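Protocol step 4 of 6: record predicted structures for both targets in the notebook before any analysis. Target 1:
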Amino acid sequence: MDKFVAGMGMIRLLSGCLEIAAALIMLRLNQVEKALVVNTGLAMVGPLVLLATTTIGLVGMADKLSWDKLIWIGCGVACLMFGILKK
């Protein structure tokens, strides 16, 4: 198995486990205010997971891509992050 794919998969598995744990915590707390606090924490984790998996994937493909393509991909990721984090 490719180590980059394994790393990306592990991060996504951990993220999924975190999502399930947060859902269980929300159900256990059974209060909208507290559930919103938990949900806000997840909203901060999502973009970090996106960045981490994208970075690992790009590092794995770096030798196959030209600098031009890497710059375009970086611009695309920056636009995504700007759209996600823009308040």
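Target 2:
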Amino acid sequence: MDKKTLDNLIDKWSNNSITIEEKEILMNYYNSYQFSTEWDNTVMGNPDEIGDRLFKKMDIGTPLATPTKNASFWKPLYRVAAAAILFFCLSWVVYTAFFEAPTYLIVETGKETKDVVLPDGTKVTMNVNSKLSYPKRFENHRRDVIFEGEGFFEVKSDSMHPFVVATPQMKVRVLGTAFNLKAYADDPLVETSLLHGKVEVLSKDEKYTYSTLEPLEKFVFEKVSVDKAGLTEVKPQMEVLPVQFIDQANTAPVDVAWKEGKFAFISTTFTDVAREIKRRYGVELVFLNKEVAAYKYSASFEQESVEEILHALNLVKSFSYRKEGDRIVIY
């Protein structure tokens, strides 16, 4: 480092414009040479003057901040104070870089879908009513994000830094892949559908690997529920299923049809369809007939209204319905 660069860093330090990286360079450089016989005054400048400029910023008191050629008594204390303060500054830099909790950004979609590009280049397409939390920059050995709702992840490949998505029930760990994750708080299931690559589905504490998915496989996690008597909790059920398609050529997976603006489902109960209708259209369906609620449907819609969807479903399996204010009653 030449004297011009050193002076520039000290000026930045004094006027609060220095970056964390520049501060670390400055402190490392000064601290490594201040006790050394290799200190070259023609390059570094007078060490006492440089220390004085640093101490002015630190405000440690006039006697130590203004040594003179005649004040040789203060020089040993001056250097001890310099070492102590610089050690504190370096410790702060290290703490900030490695231990301070990262700042997380939060993206919520509301009634619209959104595309988000993460700091590593990973792209996340978020469905309605979804929430993504991620750090301003990924550090250490992993890329961790927190997710709720539904999203399609196109993960940037990085074999040295696994990408981990946390939901309240489980985690998904990948290196580079494309998958759909559906984890709405009010859904009874959490679903991970893999299009290509490979993913591991883990317990939320990462002690257990539930499954390792191959392309076009889907992991379904049924949340903890209460048994019919309402007395005990039923353990979550898990299974791996093949991805299903809405076209005969098997090129359009039903789980990512929403990315193309489609509202599609295969062998889905009317209750689950109603939940998606409320999420997508903001219209609540109330069932007075449990048998009708258990009907299963397969269909694909794009621009149809709720009334048009109900009319189409009614042609497959008959039911009656009426509109009451903001909701539709099914019976």
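Step 5 preliminary note on target 2. The chain has three domains: 3-98, 104-242, 262-330. The first helix runs from residue 3 to 14.
Proceed to step 6 after PI sign-off.
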